[in-house]
Amino acid sequence: MSLPRFKYLAPKTIKEVCKLLSQYKGRVKIIAGGTDLLVKMKDRELTPQYLVGIKKIESLDYIHYNPVTGLRIGTLTSNQSVANSPIIREKFAILSKAAEEIGSPQIRNMGTIGGNLCNAVPSADMASPLIALKATVKLLSFKRERTIALEKFFVGPGETVLKADELLTEIQVPNLSPRTGGTYLKLYSRGSVDIATVGVAAVLTIGKNDNCDSIRIALAAVGPTPLRAKGAEEIIKGKKIENGIVEKAAQAAAEEARPRSSPEYKRQMVRVLTMQAIMQSLEQAKQA
Ligand SMILES: Cc1cc2nc3c(=O)[nH]c(=O)nc-3n(C[C@H](O)[C@H](O)[C@H](O)COP(=O)(O)OP(=O)(O)OC[C@H]3O[C@@H](n4cnc5c(N)ncnc54)[C@H](O)[C@@H]3O)c2cc1C
User: Fold this and answer.
1) Cβ(229)–Cβ(256) under 8 Å?
2) How far is the centre of ligand 1, averaged over its atoms, from the C-alpha of 55 (Å)?
3) Which one, of 176, 185, 124, lies nearest residue 150 by Cα?
4) Atom 39 of ligand 1 has which residue's CA nearest to it?
């Protein structure tokens, strides 16, 4: 099917983007890589009058790491760049692995990390690992800038707290404590597009006696938004990470999942993947 008619605007600076978003509020959509947006437009799910193309604004495409303040990723960074980045591979391997899980090389090169988040599907591969990493996002409009926890960014399927005149500019990830490990595990149907059927991200830090100092577990594709499995986290926090307790936590995560389709199967998969994600993260933490 062909695309509906629209007018394409190509601002050269972030300020110009904000100005256009404010001027055409409600009638305009940002387009980054277009790998999600153009599909929705072809399906007539979205029919914006104007598209603001941001792909050529180089100042939104960067990966910066600071040993004190952590990682900052510009919204336009392609998923392939996240997968390839030596500093992300070294310090935040859960993120590079999650990015590698996205579609094909072509889709990873076109699609951006910001687009993955702003599209706000519950199955987005970058969302749950970033939530587990306590990421925040920077949102900018003509009038103001604000930073919010990514966990609070998602409101429902395809919906975020982004206002009609706001642009997501940056993703920020705080530094990890020593002895931290993180894993993202994704299940998808063979032969279909590689969209997650279930995804589980876990990031944990161990302290003395290998007890769990902190843990964050985030689930993908089993609710209206990516979800934190807080009950599961509470079961493990402060305890020695052993089989019995991991099974209990995984069961809690399964109960916290809110899948709309195939609920029994998906809950089982959340349980299995949560156990694996915790154990793999523990191994990494011990070696870190
Ligand atoms: C064949 C195929 C396979 C795929 N496989 C996967 C997969 O395995 N896992 C997965 O997670 N995704 C997958 N995707 C989805 C897609 O590639 C990713 O979500 C990608 O990261 C989207 O980025 P984009 O730059 O193309 O977003 P776009 O399509 O340009 O934008 C997506 C949405 O975000 C908004 N937006 C973009 N940037 C901003 C910004 N900076 N501020 C505010 N709003 C913004 C747009 O207005 C639009 O509503 C797949 C897509 C296809 C077509």
Assistant:
1) yes
2) 13
3) 124
4) 115
> Does the pLDDT at position 192 exceed 70?
no
**The dihedral of CA 260, 192, 82, 282: what is its sign?**
positive
Strand, coil or helix: 217 = strand
Helix (H) / strand (E) element for 205: namely: strand 198-206
pTM of the model: 0.97
Closest-CA residue, ligand 1 atom 41, reads 168
Q: From the CB of 161, is ligand 1 less than 6 Å away? A: no
The H or E element containing residue 7 is strand 7-9
Three state DSSP letters for 39-97: HHHHCCCCCCCEEEECCCCHHHCCEEEECCCEEEEECCCEHHHHHHCHHHHHHCHHHHH
Compute, in angstroms, the gap from residue 111 CA to the centroid of ligand 1: 5
Alpha helices in 173-262 (DSSP H): 230-236, 243-256
- Give the pLDDT confidence of 118-161 residue by residue, as tens digits: 999 999 999 999 999 999 999 999 999 999 999 999 999 999 99
Ligand 1, atom nearest to 169 Cα: 41
Q: What percentage of the chain reaches a pLDDT higher than 70?
A: 99
Indicate the top mutation candidate among 14, 25, 36 to test ligand 1's pocket, ranked by most ligand atoms within 8 A of CB.
36
